[in-house]
Design a protein that fits this description.
37% helix, six-stranded antiparallel β-sheet, 994 residues, 12% strand, eight-stranded antiparallel β-sheet
Length: 994
């Protein structure tokens, strides 16, 4: 198919009556496509001139008339391309005399033009793009050149040596062992080796000492952490949406942890790709395979454009951008092609048509992003077990109720019931108005603090007098909690804002309903949810009319339902305004705290209050499990055997609750949600408002892989993704293996054999060692797509072990021929992790929710205020940082940590004054310098020379020389040990890798 063929193109021959006359298909369409369509085709019409169809060229509608039928001299088209100095085309070569003659003859003959043919811009020839050619079958050149023997038996070295020999160059000397182990440790682990590790390697005289070290580091769990970071860069992973409302993704982290595990377990790369694109389809019962699809959802997402805007035009545009992001991420990361350049027109440089781009859109047309449950294997068995446990629990509940006497459930009352279980689940009361609500709400707009509101009978439910009223508390002012004038003193300052309501169930955005293994949302339990700031007062006199006179007993399990590591939220119980119970500073990993309050017969009001501690109301979801009111004397009337029976029934009931919770609890992650795929059309100029021809799902027709058709509009969404995944990893696809081994080379040497890791097109770089690149790609597939095998192959080469010292006489100043190693500065994450390692503060715990080194304030656009990482929870490795798209962490950004809104195949390395200032004066660096000094003092004692020696060993993995020792001792004596530690952190030897 030629680029100017659109709808159909069989053996079309539209000719004039004379044999050999100009034919539009054969003679004219190629000229227009080659020279004109880029500026005057379907996607661009400069000067209001369009040559995409005959009607356009004749000036119908609002188009400028470019052709006067039968009169070439009056035709703008011919005037522009002919003459001594033709005006057109602006770009590229001018038309030849033969081409101008054909246009003249064609116009003279009436400008015949088949209606079904639309002229489009020229498409590049796939045969001219090196990366689309089949993998070469060259073998390593193992023969020695005269006077320059092959330095090792490694095939990698043989290819490189051959290039060097052809230029009369040789390998640099091998680096010393300290340099080598430090280089390897940062390459594979992203961490510095300990001084003891370095010394052990220096003293290791075994012939295979290096190979053993490579294997040991590849087996380290820190390997997965380091190499997952590289992949997450090209997945542009972050923990927030980005765009205008940069909301949190509380469950994005399972995908990040899956990538770490995948690298540590050396998951075959073809499986690694398949699972990230269609794991939920390929292996729906495999938790890890389902989580892997977080790859497709890792990028930014426009919440306003997708959900909030009322404009259908803006919604279509946001959806178009979302699909573009998915397609770009998948193709760029796996195939190294700039597919997004074909969104508005045929790719200007590479043989990728606009139709192919939208065929890939059709693959993801039914995919959206969102939080989803992870389906556990054996679900049918779990459901059967759940039924049995629930039935047993109901019988126990009947026993408990008959023995314990009448009970009022406070959550049920809030839900409109009378306390016996007939309230509506999820219903509640708005603390700002006192009115009943059922739909979940966000911020309570216009809410006024410290305004007690009596709940009207119509809004209380069946027990019209059990609830007295509600209030939004704000300290330190007195908070009114009844209509009788009772106030609460001593409540701390709050934000005065409120969220959602007081509910019979979890409040809006509550992350958890489980405390100590018991799910209080499950059958047989109840949950009373409050979100700071809110308070509700119950009328105890009304409760006694149901339960009986005397002392009452209020019991519950208090806990936290938010997802933040720590919250300043507080919970209070007041009896007639006096504190009966108080719990402060909840956390996501805190368990439940039992509440058991004896309420004297004289007490009139019971108030439950949640406050935010003054730091805003984000993630301040407090809840009470099984909040019950009973008559205290009821159990005392039971005999000994009945009391034992009651206690046994309660214990068994709770044990069953824990079993049910383990079965029913759905783990969540942020990934892709499948749905019905709408039909996809080519969009003129990439505009959703200009749809064109419909396309079916498929891959790139220019790529060598076969079977690039993935069905039609009836093919299911999941099947489309599965076929794409299989197409990408087919062994006859030359791109997939080439791109990945080049990425590995890039991260080992600091620059790839192709210096544009995500652009293997005509706009990218050409391979410096094409035979080596293809040999590595074939070896990669031959090994079963083992990434660790390729690591060993590259790392055990002589090339990797070369010194980085430059031969000033070498003509290869850019080191393209790889005679030596490229020196590099540590990336932001490695530098931060190295600082924590040397100071002794690194928290080695792996996985889990990202540490949040910021204060979070809920707002229309959430506010993230970064803080100094000054505690162990914030000293985990940098890969576990909760990454905010719109509010970058300044210290990391200064050190060239990339913008997670963009795909980052290669980190930029800049040199700025801000970097020096940050390393010298940032609060984190100052604190870590002090911790470093404290470590040195613990390990080296009080002798200054020993302290200096130990500090240099820890920072540089070597002992100081005499001059360094003398100068450092003077510095310590004059300014103290922390100053020396600060200086070592700022030294080039610490920051750079040779």
């Amino acid at each position: 198919m030629h680029s100017w063929q659109v709808m159909v193109f069989a053996a079309l021959s539209f000719s004039t009556s004379s044999h050999g006359a100009v034919d539009f298909t054969r003679d004219i369409a190629p000229i227009l496509s080659m020279h004109c369509a880029e500026c005057h085709g379907p996607n661009v019409q400069k000067g209001k001139v369009s040559l995409q169809s005959r009607a356009h060229a004749l000036g119908e509608a609002d188009w400028k008339n470019a052709i006067v039928v039968g009169d070439p001299g009056a035709s703008l088209l011919l005037q522009s391309v002919s003459g001594a100095e033709p005006e057109m085309p602006k770009k590229g070569p001018k038309l030849t005399a033969d081409e101008v003659g054909k246009l003249r003859e064609w116009i003279t003959s009436g400008a015949p033009w088949p209606e079904e043919i639309t002229i489009k811009e020229r498409l590049s020839d796939a045969g001219t793009l090196w990366s689309l050619q089949p993998l070469g079958d060259s073998m390593p050149p193992m023969t020695a050149t005269e006077g320059m023997p092959v330095p090792a038996s490694s095939p990698v070295d043989a290819f490189i040596h051959a290039k060097l020999s052809a230029k009369g160059l040789a390998f640099a000397a091998e680096a010393d062992r300290r340099t080598l182990i430090r280089r390897l440790s940062f390459t594979l682990l992203g961490l510095p080796p300990s001084p003891e590790e370095v010394e052990a390697f220096i003293q290791d005289t075994r012939a295979d000492a290096w190979e053993l070290l490579v294997d040991r580091y590849l087996a380290s769990p820190h390997y997965g952490e380091r190499w997952a970071r590289h992949w997450l860069d090209i997945a542009h992973y972050a923990d927030t949406h980005g765009f205008e409302r940069d909301q949190k993704r509380e469950h994005a982290w399972p995908y990040r942890d899956w990538v770490v595990r995948a690298f540590n377990h050396d998951m075959p790369y073809d499986e690694f790709i398949r699972h990230q694109i269609a794991g939920d389809i390929i292996a729906p019962q495999n938790r890890d395979a389902v989580i892997a699809t977080g790859f497709l959802a890792a990028g930014p997402w426009d919440f306003v454009g997708q959900k909030e805007t009322p404009s259908p035009v803006l919604k279509r545009q946001a959806r178009a951008d979302d699909l573009d992001d998915m397609v770009t991420q998948v193709i760029t990361s796996t195939l190294g092609l700039t597919i997004n350049c074909a969104r508005c027109h045929n790719h200007k440089l590479d043989p990728i048509s606009q139709e192919d781009y939208y065929r890939l859109w059709a693959v993801f047309a039914g995919v959206t992003r969102g939080e989803r449950d992870i389906d556990a294997p054996g679900q049918d068995g779990a459901m059967q077990m759940k039924k049995k446990l629930t039935a047993h629990q109901q019988k126990l509940n009947e026993v408990i109720s008959s023995l314990a006497g009448p009970t009022l459930d406070l959550a049920d009352i809030v839900g409109g019931g009378d306390g016996t279980g007939n309230g509506k689940a999820g219903a509640g009361i708005d603390a700002s108005t006192g009115k009943r609500i059922e739909q979940k709400k966000g911020f309570l707009d216009g809410a006024r603090a410290n305004q007690f509101v009596a709940v009207q009978p119509s809004d209380k439910g069946r027990a019209a007098d059990l609830i007295h009223g509600v209030v939004i508390p704000e300290g330190p002012h007195p908070v009114p909690i009844t209509s009788t004038g009772i106030t609460v003193e001593g409540v701390p300052a709050t934000s005065g804002k409120a969220w959602d309501g007081i509910r019979n169930g979890p409040v809006n955005a509550q992350a958890s309903t489980i405390l100590d293994g018991v799910n209080y949302k499950a059958a047989g339990h109840s949950l009373l949810g409050l979100h700071a700031n809110a308070a509700i007062t119950f009328d105890l006199a009304a409760m006694r009319r149901t339960l009986g006179d005397g002392t009452l007993r209020f019991t519950a399990m208090t806990g936290y339902g938010g997802s933040a590591a720590g919250s300043k939220a507080e919970f209070w119980v007041f009896l007639d305004g006096k504190t009966a119970f108080h719990r402060a500073k909840f956390g996501a990993k805190d368990g439940g705290l039992p509440l058991d309050v004896s309420i004297p017969a004289s007490a009139r009001f019971l108030t439950l209050m949640s406050t935010d501690g003054g730091d805003g109301i984000s993630h301040d979801q407090v809840f009470l499990g099984d909040a019950r009111m009973t008559l205290a004397e009821a159990s005392s009337r039971l005999g000994k055997e009945e009391q034992e029976e009651l206690s046994s029934a309660i214990r068994k009931y709770d044990a069953l609750s824990r079993q049910l919770s383990a079965l029913a609890r759905p783990d969540k992650f942020y990934g892709v949600l499948g749905g019905e795929a709408p039909k996809v059309q080519v969009l003129a100029r990439g505009s959703p408002e200009s749809p064109g021809a419909e396309v079916a799902p498929g891959g790139l027709t220019c790529a060598g892989a076969s079977d690039h058709d993935f069905g039609n509009h009836t093919t299911s969404e999941g099947e489309r993704r599965r076929r794409l995944a299989e197409w990408i990893v087919q062994k006859d696809n030359p791109l997939t293996a080439r791109v990945l081994v080049n990425r590995l080379w890039h991260h080992h040497f600091g620059r790839g054999l192709v210096d544009t890791p995500s652009d293997f097109g005509n706009g990218g770089g050409k391979p410096s060692h094409p035979e080596l690149l293809d040999w590595l790609a074939r070896e990669f597939m031959k090994s079963g797509w083992s990434v660790k095998h390729m690591h060993r192959l590259i790392l055990t080469s002589s090339a990797y072990r070369r010194s980085s010292l430059r031969d000033t006489d070498s003509p290869d100043t850019s080191n393209t021929l790889l005679a030596r190693m490229h020196p590099r500065r540590l990336d932001a994450e490695s530098l931060r992790d190295a600082v924590l390692t040397v100071s002794g503060c690194l928290n080695p715990s792996m996985g889990g929710p990202g540490y949040q080194d910021f204060e979070y304030q809920e707002a229309y656009a959430p506010i993230y205020k970064h803080v100094t990482a000054d505690k162990p929870a914030l000293w985990k490795r940098s890969i576990y940082r909760f990454i905010v798209r719109t509010t970058p962490q300044r210290f990391m950004t200064t050190l060239d940590c990339p913008d997670p809104a963009n795909l980052t195949p290669a980190r930029l390395t800049t040199t700025t004054a801000l970097q020096s200032l940050a390393l010298m004066n940032n609060a984190f660096m100052l604190q870590q310098s002090r911790h470093f000094a404290e470590r040195v003092q613990r390990e080296a004692g009080t002798e200054t020379s020993e302290q200096v020696t130990r500090a240099v060993e820890l920072a540089f993995q070597r002992r100081p020389d005499s001059q360094e020792l003398e100068g450092a001792i003077k510095l310590v004596e004059q300014q103290g040990l922390p100053s020396l530690c600060r200086l070592l952190f700022n030294a080039n030897e610490f920051v750079h890798l040779d």
